[in-house]
Specification:
The chain contains seven helices and ten strands. It has 250 residues and is an alpha/beta fold. The protein folds into two domains: 131 residues, Rossmann fold (3-Layer(aba) Sandwich), CATH 3.40.50.300; 69 residues, 3-Layer(aba) Sandwich (Rossmann fold). α2 runs parallel beside α4.
């Protein structure tokens, strides 16, 4: 059996200002290359958990390890996509994508070629010289995804990256994201409220809930890759939704 790559052991969090336990005894083993989604009601601690994994937020109890190395500070081999695609307004799409590399070293022809190739793979070859204000919300989200993957991070964290988009754009992005993930094979933790999104993209789904938030249930998604959207009209997806509704008392 493959050993865990990213491990959360008995993670607990109490924000000092609140003096209220936000997360309690959360444990999860994630394999290298696995795609995990975390779902749960608003305020249950999903973003806090992502911040703990990234090393931005220190847990009050428990520990995080990546490749058996304990995480004590922000992790380098990790990319984080926030809810809003934060792009620099004065830089073009291409310049935004290569920014993480530019912050570390001089850009090369190879970097530019790779960025253009990745942008093309998500249908943005005509937009590389546009500025963010000239791009739609869906286009901006794609730029943020390509930027997050340009350095081939071993871990990709995404916090509701598509929540502001309409369902057609979202559907298209899910398919494109799947292609990129298959090509670069990062270990992914996605936070989402969208059950279809979680089911279509993930290998495993984790339900976070309760007060304080803890792991309520895990679901293995029983569909092979490459995925087809018709898995969302299957009995298995229906059963999954039903279970979530019952467990969260929706
Ligand atoms: N920096 C902070 N300082 C103090 N309390 C915080 C901080 N960040 C979050 N909280 C509190 O922790 C709890 C969990 O917040 P978190 O943002 O992790 O929830 P969430 O599950 O991501 O919610 P949503 O789905 O609405 O994004 C909330 O009660 C929130 O008020
Ligand atoms: Mg959140």
């Amino acid at each position: 059996m493959q050993p865990p790559y990213l491990q959360l052991k008995n993670v607990g969090l109490t924000y000092e200002q609140e003096q209220k336990e936000t997360i309690r005894q959360f444990s999860l083993d994630i394999k290298k290359g696995e795609f995990i989604s975390i779902i749960g009601k608003s305020g249950c601690g999903k973003t806090s958990l992502l911040q703990i994994i990234s090393g931005i937020q220190k847990p009050t109890t428990g520990l995080i390890s990546i490749g058996s190395q304990e995480v004590n500070e922000p992790v380098d081999e990790l990319s984080y996509i926030f809810q809003k695609p934060i792009l620099l307004e004065w830089k073009t799409v291409l310049e935004n994508v290569v920014l993480p590399i530019e912050l570390k070293r001089k850009l090369t022809e190879k970097d530019m070629y790779k960025a253009k190739e990745m942008l093309e793979s998500v249908g943005l070859s005509d937009a590389i010289h546009k500025f963010p204000y000239e791009c739609s919300g869906g286009m901006q989200s794609r730029v943020a995804i390509v930027r997050a993957l340009i350095e081939q991070p071993s871990i990709l964290l995404m916090d509701e990256p598509f929540s502001a988009l309409d369902s057609f754009t979202k559907n298209q992005l899910h398919v494109q994201l799947n292609h990129l993930i298959n090509a670069y094979k990062p270990t992914v933790v996605l936070v989402t409220h969208d059950l279809q999104e979680a089911f279509f993209l993930s290998d495993r789904i984790v339900l976070l809930g309760g007060e304080p938030g803890t792991l309520l249930q895990e679901y293995q998604v029983p569909f092979p890759r490459p995925r087809k959207k018709n898995m969302l009209i299957s009995q298995k997806f229906y059963d999954f939704q039903q279970d979530i509704i019952e467990r969260l008392h929706l």
